[in-house]
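stage 2 :: seqdesign
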């Protein structure tokens, strides 16, 4: 065998600690961000908190919870409503995504203190006279609500849901999660098993360790779980120029952090040990990431929510049946951010809106079908259910008749699409609905 020495050039992106920190801040809710900053202010010598003693500027904004007669000068800090029960917010999401589906509510009632589903699918199927596979389909849809992964069956499923939301698609990562979670600290074993360098395995293990350990992680409370909104969406008062909505980022209680340059000189000293120098350098990188990441998080969150509010104006003013189809790709094209960045910003974020407190996920909806035009599948389902509720029980409407009625309303979908949505809502066909 002839041996030879070859030089190979390869482009490879290595994320710095600063950039990793910036990306991580995008995914954090306000509560999680507050905890992260408090921790870093205690441990990081390059960061300090600046206390603002200047008077806070107040602006007159119409709050939907206040009548026109009672309108008053509102300080952004006074706009924050009482903390909302997580149970209430999950039920609100179900009312949007499932139209108050009793099965989804039953599934949520069967989660433990960590947010995992501990109920019995067969018992729920018997109770609602449905197939177990249909109940499982509803459960999986519930896991897409906020908090991400709520009602997951186990840790493995929850971790995979988080990877999917972060748009991380790695077969080796998935295999480690399914087969070797107990071996995360055994890098040598994992390296041999998956035939990868230790450095690559360490990076994959680091990804897993940065995921949340259970769905309700960060929502712990003494008696009940609460959620604090990350952003407020208000209708502008009459006469105020600009777009239709005011968007206010909820940064109350978030520390105003500053970078301390004095410690930077220590990095150039020759009398410090390599261990101390490495420690200080990591803290330096993380401090830079936090300073840049906070500004980036606020700007991106504002731009995203502003775009979502204006695009989904009808939904915010009139309710769920007016929501327009919207995908991550379409938003990416509109505001110039990558889809994965938008996904991170949306994750675990809530907004106070004219329709109540909603997760940012609620602003996204898939299209019903190619022939249905600019209308979401959720809106079509709502129309179908509304028509069926008004039908004559002795002469129930067939799927073909429902499709024709929708066409008269400007919604062009096929009979098979009507049947698909009807089945997804758990509504039997016309023969089974007929009153005997």
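stage 2 :: out
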């Amino acid at each position: 065998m002839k041996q030879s020495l070859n030089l190979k050039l390869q482009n490879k992106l290595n994320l710095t600690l600063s950039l990793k920190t910036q990306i991580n801040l995008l995914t954090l809710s306000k509560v999680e961000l507050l905890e992260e900053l408090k921790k870093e202010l205690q441990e990081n010598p390059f960061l300090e908190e600046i206390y603002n003693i200047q008077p806070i500027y107040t602006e007159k904004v119409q709050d939907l919870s206040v009548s026109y007669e009672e309108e008053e000068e509102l300080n952004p800090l006074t706009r924050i409503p009482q903390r909302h029960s997580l149970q209430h917010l999950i039920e609100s999401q179900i009312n949007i995504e499932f139209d108050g589906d009793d099965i989804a509510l039953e599934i949520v009632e069967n989660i433990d203190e960590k947010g995992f589903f501990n109920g019995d699918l067969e018992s729920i199927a018997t109770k609602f006279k449905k197939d177990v596979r249909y109940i499982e389909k509803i459960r999986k849809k519930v896991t897409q609500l906020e908090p991400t992964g709520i009602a997951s069956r186990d840790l493995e499923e929850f971790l995979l849901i988080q990877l999917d939301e972060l748009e991380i698609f790695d077969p080796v990562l998935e295999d480690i999660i399914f087969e070797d979670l107990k071996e995360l600290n055994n890098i040598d074993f994992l390296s041999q098993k998956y035939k990868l360098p230790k450095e690559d395995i360490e990076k994959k293990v680091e990804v897993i360790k940065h995921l949340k350990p259970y769905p309700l992680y960060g929502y712990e409370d003494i008696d009940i779980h609460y959620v604090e909104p990350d952003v407020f969406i208000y209708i502008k008062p009459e006469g105020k120029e600009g777009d239709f909505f005011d968007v206010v980022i909820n940064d109350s209680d978030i520390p105003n952090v500053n970078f301390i340059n004095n410690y930077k000189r220590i990095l150039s000293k020759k009398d410090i040990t390599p261990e101390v120098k490495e420690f200080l350098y990591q803290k330096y990188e993380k401090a830079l990431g936090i300073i840049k990441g906070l500004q980036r998080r606020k700007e991106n969150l504002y731009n995203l929510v502003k775009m979502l509010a204006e695009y989904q104006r009808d939904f915010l003013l009139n309710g769920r049946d007016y929501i327009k189809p919207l995908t991550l790709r379409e938003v990416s094209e509109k505001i110039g951010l990558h889809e994965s960045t938008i996904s991170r910003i949306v994750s675990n974020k809530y907004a106070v809106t004219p329709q109540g407190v909603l997760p940012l996920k609620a602003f996204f909806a898939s299209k019903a079908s190619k022939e249905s035009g600019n209308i979401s599948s959720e809106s079509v389902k709502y129309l179908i259910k509304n028509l069926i509720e008004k039908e004559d029980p002795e002469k129930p409407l067939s799927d073909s008749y429902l499709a024709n009625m929708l066409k008269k309303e400007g919604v062009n979908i096929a009979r098979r699409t009507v049947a698909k949505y009807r089945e997804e809502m758990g509504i039997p066909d016309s023969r089974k609905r007929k009153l005997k």
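stage 3 :: structure notes
- Residues 7-14, 53-82 have pLDDT under 50 and may be disordered.
- The beta strands are 47-50, 84-85, 226-227, 231-235, 245-249, 256-259, 350-353, 356-359.
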